[in-house]
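Posted in: Structural Biology > Protein-Ligand Complexes

Title: Requesting predicted complex, adenosine-5'-triphosphate in pocket

I'd be grateful if someone could produce the C-alpha cells for the following input. Sequence and ligand are given below.
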Amino acid sequence: MFELLGIPPQALFGQVLLGLINGSFYAVLSLGLAVIFGLLNIINFAHGALYMMGAFVSWMLLTYLGIPFWFALVISPLVVGALGMVIERTMLRPLHELDHLYSLLLTFGLTLVITGVFQNFYGVSGKPYPIPAALTGVMNLGFMFLPIYRGFIIVMAVIVCFATWFLIEKTRLGSYLRAATENPEMVSAFGINVPLLVTLTYGFGVALSAFAGVLAAPVYSVNPVMGNDLIIVVFAVIVIGGMGSIMGAIIGGFSLGLVEGLTKVFYPEASTTIIFIIMALVLLFKPSGIFGREV
Amino acid sequence: MTHTIEKSQADTPGPETQAMLEVQGLNGWYGESHVLHDVNLTVNKGEVVTLLGRNGAGKTTTLKAIMGLLKSRSGSIRFNGTELIDLPARDIARLGIGYVPDDRGIFGSLSVLENLLLPPKVADGGFDLPAIYELFPNLEERLDSYGNKLSGGEQQMLSIARILRTGALFVLMDEPTEGLAPVIIHQIGHTVRRLKKAGFTILLVEQNFHFARELADRHYIVQEGKVVDQFRNDEIADNLEKIQGYLGI
Ligand SMILES: Nc1ncnc2c1ncn2[C@@H]1O[C@H](COP(=O)(O)OP(=O)(O)OP(=O)(O)O)[C@@H](O)[C@H]1O
Ligand SMILES: [Mg+2]
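-- Reply #1 --
Done. Output follows.
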C-alpha cells in the first residue's frame, strides 16, 4: 500500500469523507444564510436553532407519529420554513426600517428562546435517530468503505445546492429575487410584491437549514444545542465565500469542509481553527470574500 | 380643502379629450422636508406632456409620488378614475403605469434579456420581443450582456423597452436624454414619437427644452415644488422668453 507523507490512505480517505460530510452541512446552511442575507440584508443568527428544529421535527415525526425519514425530509423543512415565514412577518418586518443590528439581535434572541424551550422539554442529552433502513450498510469503493448514509448526505447536499443555484440564477422567480436584492424599489414599481418575496425568501432559507437538520439527525445526535457550534463555523464560511454569494456559499462550504478534514490528517492541532485562520486571511486580503462582489 | 386645477385655455378638455391622469393638490415630503406643494396637473389620453423646471424643482419627486415610491404624500392622484394616493407602488404598476426612472433602474446583475423579461405583464397588447428588437436593434445584439456592462444609451433604451412588454399604456419617463449623445437623443425622440402613435400616453420630465418641444403636446413648468405655469406646444413660440426665464436658459 502507498502512503502519503506517512499517512495511511484509509485514514486520509476517511478524513476526506468526513470533511465532505461536514462540508455538505456547511454548504446547505451557508446557502440558506446567503439567500437570506442577499435579499433581507440581515445575518440570520437563528439559523443554527432552526437547523436544530429541523432535526427535532424529524425526530418528533418519527417518535410521536411514526412518520419515517423520507417524509420528514419534506415535511420538516415545510413546517420549519412556515415558522420562518411567521417570524419574518411578525418580528423581522417591523425592524426592516431600522439598523440591521436590530434584526441581528432579534435573531440572536430567538436562538436563545428556541434553544431554551427545547432544552426545557428535552434536556441536553441527544435523542437517537436511526438511519433509514434503505440507507444502512456500507459500499466498497475499492479504495475505501463508504457508509451508504454518509454518501447519501453528500449526494443530497449537492442536489439541493444545485437546485437552489438553478432556481436563483436561471428562473424567472430567481431573477425577481436577484433584482430585488439590487433595487427593491424598482422591482415594486413593476408590480411585483416585494414584501411577499421577502417572506418567501426567508422561509426558503430557513427551510434549507431545516433540511440540513433532517439530514443530520441520523449522524449527529439530535439535541437542543446541536446548531450552536456549527453555526459559528458556517458564519466563517459565508465570510470567506462572500456575504450573500450563492456560489461562494456552495463552493466555500464543501471546500472548507474538505480543508478541515485534510487538516485533521496532516496537522490535527489546527483542525478546529483552520477555517477561522482562513477567514482572517480572507478578511485581510479580500474583505468582500472570495466570491463576493466588491462594493 | 378642495383644489381646482387652474384651467387656462391650454387644457380645456374638448369632447374628444379624456383625462387619464389627474393630480390635484399633491403634497409630498422626504422625511420632514416638504417638497411638493399642491401640485396640480392633468394628462389626457394619447398626450405627451412634459414637466419642465430647474434642478431640484420637484419633477422627479412628482413622478415618484405618482408611482407610489414617495412614502409620504397627500392629495389626490386619479388614474383612469382610480385613486392612487393610498396604493403601494406594486398596485399602481398593475393598473398599467410604466416607470422609466432618472437613473434608468437597470439591474446590473441581470442580463439584458432578464431585464427585459422582468416586469410582469399588466395588460394585454404589450410589445412582443421581435417588436422591441425592431425598435431597439442594439439591444438584440446584447441580450446576454449584464446590465452593468451597457452604455448609458443602451441602458436608457432597455429601461424604456422593458416597459413596452408589459402592456402599460401610460409611461412616466424621467429625463431619458440626460447625459446622452445627440444621436442617441435623436433615437429616443424617435421612439417617443412611435409610442405616441401607438397610443401611449407619456408624462415626460425633461431639462432638455429643445427635445421636449419637438415631442410634447403640452408643458407644465415646475418651480419649488409647485406647478407655476403651463403651455400648449403651439404657444411656445409666443412665450419663449417667459419659459426661458423659468428654466434659466
Ligand atoms: N431622497 C431625498 N431626500 C431628501 N430630499 C430630497 C431627496 N430627493 C430629492 N430631494 C429634494 O427634493 C427637492 C426636489 O428634488 P427632485 O429630485 O424632485 O428635483 P428635480 O426637479 O427632479 O431635479 P433634477 O432636474 O435635478 O432632477 C430638491 O430640493 C431635492 O434636494
Ligand atoms: Mg430629477
